[in-house]
Amino acid sequence: MLRFSFLPAAAAALLLTPRLHSQSPDPSLAQRRCNKRLADLRMPLLNDLGDSAHIVEILSRGGNPRTPMTWVKLRFGKDGSLRNIDVQKAASSKARDDIRDSLRSSVHPIGPSPVDFTLHLLRFNETGQIRVLTETTTCPPEAHSTAEMQNLISRIRQQAPETNVHRDVVVLFVLEANGRVADAWVEFSGGSPQVDDLAIDVLRAQRFEPAIVGHTAVAALIRQSVKF
């Protein structure tokens, strides 16, 4: 059996929170698990964090061309000040320290918030694209099973019964504001390329409700554990 869990270390962990019924005229949102205390959150843009060209240059000089992305986690306190920076997949330990120190002196406060606000800066090392993705949400993303997903699982069980053992594949992916799964990577392999590929196929066959910050659907970085 395949089971899914969303891990809070990446982005927008799926926690049971009070529903927010008044955030949008869209009646479909009445069924979302939302936190009404966070109805007034606002998603910062790259320009809100400081000189966008300088931030791009900082990430570009420390990006690791041997990995799909270089990933920076920024945590802001309730007063809006930058509290912590975590850099992953930099080109070297020196590059990691340079990114952290340079961003610490460059990133601006984002303004007060009811909770600590966590963002992710992703540099896609093949294209040089920079994305700002959220971890803190008013409404976390939600995953739904689909007929395509169930058919795929049935085929997996028929054609590859060796996958019916307990194996975890951890996948990182960008969930766009329209609920579409964009870029996806295996972070922790299930032990074989076949199992890893199946995990991503099953992931893409799901239907997702996007993350919402305040009243706006936004892109988020998700770490999803696919359990075979």
Give the helix proportion (percent range).
Answer: 10-25%
SS-based structural class? alpha+beta
Low-confidence stretches: 1-28
Determine the oligomeric state from the structure: single chain
Q: What's the total count of β strands?
A: 12
| H-E string | EHHEEHEEEHEEHEEEE
Percentage of β-strand residues: 25-35%
Describe the global form: flat
Structural write-up:
This protein has 228 residues and is of the alpha+beta class. The chain folds into 2 domains: 3-39 and 139-227, no CATH class; 46-134. The protein has 5 helices and 12 strands. It has helices spanning 46-49, 52-62, 93-106, 147-159, 193-204, and strands at residues 3-6, 69-76, 82-88, 117-124, 129-134, 142-144, 168-175, 181-188, 207-209, 211-213, 216-218, 220-227. A 4-stranded antiparallel sheet has the order 1-12-7-8. Strands 3-2-4-5 form a 4-stranded antiparallel sheet, covered by helices on one side. β2 (69-76) and β3 (82-88) form a beta hairpin. α2 (52-62) runs antiparallel to α3 and α4 (147-159) runs antiparallel to α5. It starts with a strand and ends with a strand. Residues 1-28 have low confidence and may be disordered.
Task: Supply the key terms.
24% helix; alpha+beta; four-stranded antiparallel β-sheet; disordered N terminus; 228 residues; 30% strand
Short description:
Helices cover 24% and strands 30% of the residues.
